[in-house]
Amino acid sequence: MIMGMVFLVFFSFVVAASAGNFNQDFDITWGNGRAKILGNGQLLTLSLDKISGSGFRSKKQYLFGQIDMQIKLVPGNSAGTVTAYYLSSLGSSHDEIDFEFLGNVSGEPYILHTNIFTKGQGNREQQFYLWFDPTKDFHTYSILWNPQTIIYSVDGTPIREFKNLESKGIPFPKSQPMWIFSSLWNADDWATRGGLVKTDWSRAPFTASYRNFNAQTSKSSSAGNSWFTQSLDATGQARIKWVQKNYMIYNYCTDTKRFPQGFPPECSLSSKL
Ligand SMILES: *[C@@H]1O[C@H](CO)[C@@H](O)[C@H](O)[C@H]1NC(C)=O
């Protein structure tokens, strides 16, 4: 009995410790030493200087999942830099679920830019300010992706939902497995105030940090409330409304200049898009 308990404690420790090891879950894909896995796989850093950015990719592909990553963004003057963190399949009709963090001069707000591609087609941008300074601490950025819905969350607060509206003729990602990608790169031709503010290379290298990656992919759950069948409850819907009212700064579904002939069909089919 005691032995069993000791074993159980030891076993759960091993399981917990092996969840989120960057050495096991990711490969550094570019940057010539600018991306680093540190602390026995517990921390990953990307950096950018005038010569190159850097990036990593998951070893595995995912077809649905509850995927969480803690990120601490480039501090100080990060104008012109973009930290992209996204799920994507490959090819011309790929699916993609994006977080992109657009840097800013010190003290001015980052923009969280989101987009969703289905069958190679994106143009579904929504942008947000955050309700905290994302450079001071690690915060959790999550994607819940199941056959019914895609929900973006920040520290557990849902900010965006893309529902499966296939029955209305709108493609939904559900058959192409995706990798997780991240990269830190220079985009000062467009990122900060539409390209007006340039990257200050005297501040380089710029560094973003990652920790506590966790991907739930097992479809069943003994508790019965698996991520696989989850949808937004009333509280979640109220939270999304709060974020959209107070922090959303761009929504393709209200951009009449861009869509003079009428909005994409999903815009009118779901008020929560
Ligand atoms: C940067 O700060 C300016 C001024 O507050 C703001 O208009 C802009 O949305 C901020 N973010 C980016 C990425 O440009």
Structure description:
- By secondary structure, this protein is an alpha+beta fold.
- The protein has a single domain (4-269), classed as Jelly Rolls (Sandwich).
- It contains four helices and 15 strands.
- The strands form two sheets. The protein has an eight-stranded antiparallel sheet with strand order 1-4-13-6-7-8-9-15. A seven-stranded antiparallel sheet has the order 2-3-14-5-10-11-12.
- The longest helix is centred in the N-terminal third of the chain and has 17 residues, at 2-18.
- The N and C termini lie far apart (53 Å).
- The relative contact order is 0.20.
- Bound molecules: 2-acetamido-2-deoxy-beta-D-glucopyranose.
- 2-acetamido-2-deoxy-beta-D-glucopyranose binds at residues 102, 104, 108-109, 111, 192-193.
Give the SSE map.
Layout: H1 2-18, H2 22-25, E1 26-30, E2 36-38, E3 43-48, E4 54-58, E5 65-72, E6 81-88, E7 96-102, E8 111-117, E9 126-128, E10 139-145, E11 149-154, E12 157-163, E13 179-186, E14 206-216, H3 234-246, E15 248-251, H4 265-269
Antiparallel strand pairs: 1-4, 2-3, 3-14, 4-13, 5-10, 5-14, 6-7, 6-13, 7-8, 8-9, 9-15, 10-11, 11-12
The site of 2-acetamido-2-deoxy-beta-D-glucopyranose has 7 residues, from loops.
